[in-house]
Design goal:
This protein has four helices and 14 strands.
Length: about 220
């Protein structure tokens, strides 16, 4: 059996907001934020940076009504600091909703009427929660590589399964990306990119040479007529 991809986490500095709960609801409010941001380079992850592609997750709907297709992704959780002891909501219970727009993956979670839920509401109200994170598993062939204008390696995450979204208190920890991940052979990746570039340039040179040869042949045939 193929190994299950390990869970990876990323953190983004985006505002978290608290909205009032609907009239008649028991919870202390609705927490909203962006768990993932598209097309934005991460901090250095150990010799490379990362970008989340807008098509990384399966979606349903169109435009601003697009939502994460949790039917294919399975159950997605919202947990404070990615800790199950800090569970705030789930997609299968309808207490967590996930939307996709031009910025990234936006979440809305109905905070539970528990001590923990009320604590989250107070922390958000005071502005103590300024970061969100998301956990995901990269699907096979779901990561491609390129170099940016500075020559730094960029990993582009194109296909992944969402595991959870999380308001976090310590972005430095979750953004460090140690995460016990398998080592990435950056030298091999850089070499493969250069090989690909060399092959592409060679192909362009061959195409130009063939084109010129055809022009010479046509001119020669004309001159002989």
């Amino acid at each position: 059996m193929p190994e299950t991809p390990e869970v990876e986490r990323r953190t983004f500095d985006r505002p978290i907001h608290l909205r009032a709960a609907p009239e008649g609801a028991n919870g202390p409010g609705i927490l909203t934020g962006y768990g993932a941001v598209f097309n934005s380079e991460s901090r250095d992850l150990g010799g490379y940076v990362e970008v989340i592609d807008p098509g990384v997750f399966d979606t349903i709907g169109e435009g601003d009504a697009r939502m994460i297709d949790t039917g294919s992704n399975g159950r997605v959780l919202c947990r404070f600091n990615h800790d199950s002891n800090g569970l705030l909501g789930t997609t299968n219970a309808g207490t967590l909703r996930l939307f996709v727009d031009d910025i990234g993956v936006r979440y809305e979670v109905d905070l539970p009427d528990t001590q923990h839920g009320r604590d989250m509401a107070e922390l958000a109200r005071r502005g103590d929660l300024a970061f969100s994170s998301f956990a995901f598993r990269i699907l096979p062939n779901g990561r491609t590589w390129r170099e940016n204008a500075s020559g730094q390696l960029v990993a582009v995450i194109t296909r992944a399964v969402l595991v959870d979204v999380a308001p976090v208190a310590d972005p430095a920890y979750w953004g460090s990306s140690a995460e016990m991940r398998a080592a990435v052979d950056l030298d091999a990746i850089r070499a493969s990119l250069k090989t690909t570039d060399t092959e592409a340039r060679a192909s362009e040179v061959r195409a130009v040479a063939i084109g010129r040869a055809r022009q010479i042949t046509i001119l020669t045939e004309r001159n002989h007529k």
